[in-house]
TrEMBL record:
GO terms for biological process: SCF-dependent proteasomal ubiquitin-dependent protein catabolic process. InterPro entries: Leu-rich_rpt (IPR001611), Leu-rich_rpt_Cys-con_subtyp (IPR006553), LRR_dom_sf (IPR032675). This is F-box/LRR-repeat protein 20. Pfam families: LRR_6. SMART domains: LRR_CC. It comes from the Eukaryota. GO terms for cellular component: SCF ubiquitin ligase complex.
Length: 370
């Protein structure tokens, strides 16, 4: 193992904090932040070190704090950090089992410069911490816990009213909060990630009504969502780039599966994994009408077979005949398993051979397949 010089120096300092009484004045801010993260990572926030950390590393110049998986980080450590006068831009608190509401409130109160705040799997933390967070510049907020009912709709609405610029929101919460989130964030919201399994058509329609700038949404397992609400969502959210409709069981049969014809052409990533769609023609038409898709996942879709694969690839070849420059396994990566025979390969190869602008190369992760 070869160490970088700065890593070697930081390792030496973290092992001998007491030997550097003037560390706070001599260490650049970026290395203070990195050293704090390393001390937490190596379980070195023990009481003997905490006074040195507070004196030499907790400073008003700190902007990025990342504390993860350290049982020694307690409310006292976060209170000392809050008293340092730092104006944080990024704060990540992850798997700190000895931190309570008072610790999080101490470090988040008055932090109006925050742009990213992630609070994940802090078992002693409740919705009370939301009352201390007011950051008008915050664009990314994540709160994950093992308890889905950790927050009431009223508490969520109050929090969002003070942090209305959030673009990316990831929560371990009930879907009952979706209308509250949609109405509170409106045009600001670009990505929402929650447990969508129990989401209803009404929730989807709320997103369609209030959040036209939505770019990424994961509906994997949303078995109650149907055609009409999704059409409204796709018509309203014309900038949608990433969509997961995996295991959305209502969309597997006619007429519900017809919603696939209305997928926004802005999509660059689409997952239909586990969608029990038998109609291969709808699948082909759905895929080939999306000109910008670069990440396509179709694992477990019954409609994906030799015939539909050949149709899809031949359609892409036709697109390239009409003016596009190159085609390979990279732009549209999907991996069908145990469903491609020699006839399919021959059909695809023939279409490619007829295009003088396309060169055939061996695909990655294959054994002699051209």
């Amino acid at each position: 193992m070869v160490w970088k010089l700065n890593d070697l120096c930081l390792h030496c300092v973290q092992q001998n904090l007491a030997s550097y009484p003037n560390l706070g004045s001599s260490l650049p801010n970026i290395y203070k932040e990195r050293l704090i993260e390393r001390l937490a990572c190596h379980d070195m926030f023990f009481p003997e070190n905490l006074s040195h950390i507070a004196t030499n590393l907790f400073a008003p110049t700190l902007r990025h704090i990342n504390l993860q998986s350290c049982d020694q980080v307690t409310d006292k450590a976060l209170q000392l950090l809050g008293r340092s006068g730092c104006q944080l831009e990024v704060l990540i608190l992850n798997r700190l089992k000895n931190v309570t509401d008072s610790g999080v409130q101490a470090v988040t109160s008055g932090q109006d410069a925050l742009t990213v705040l992630h609070i994940k799997f802090l078992p002693k933390v409740t919705q009370a911490v939301l009352s201390s967070i007011a950051a008008p510049k915050m664009w990314s907020f994540s709160f994950k816990t093992n308890t889905k009912s950790w927050c009431t709709a009223a508490a969520m609405a109050s929090f969002l009213s003070k942090n209305s610029s959030i673009k990316v929101m990831k929560l371990a919460t009930d879907v009952e909060h979706v209308p509250v989130i949609a109405q509170s964030l409106q045009e600001s919201l670009e990505e929402l990630k929650i447990n969508f399994q129990a989401i209803t058509d009404n929730d989807i329609e709320a997103l369609a009504e209030y959040c036209p700038n939505l770019k990424r949404i994961d509906l994997n397992g949303a078995k109650n969502v149907g055609k009409e609400s999704l059409i409204k969502l796709f018509q309203a959210c014309t900038q949608l780039q990433t969509l997961d409709l995996g295991y959305c069981s209502r969309l597997s049969v006619l007429p519900e599966c017809e919603v696939l014809w209305t997928l926004p052409q802005s999509l660059v990533s689409l997952s239909l994994c586990g969608l029990m769609l038998q109609d291969g023609q709808i699948l082909v038409e759905c895929i080939t009408r999306l000109p910008h898709v670069s990440n396509l996942k179709l694992c477990g879709v019954p409609g994906l077979n030799d015939h539909t694969i050949a149709q899809t690839v031949c359609s892409w070849v036709k697109e390239f005949n009409e003016g596009k420059e190159s085609i390979s396994d990279c732009p549209r990566p999907w991996r069908p398993k145990s469903c491609v025979n020699e006839q399919t390969i021959d059909s695809i190869k023939k279409s490619i051979d007829e295009n003088p602008h396309i060169s055939v190369q061996e695909l990655s992760d294959t054994n002699g397949l051209w």
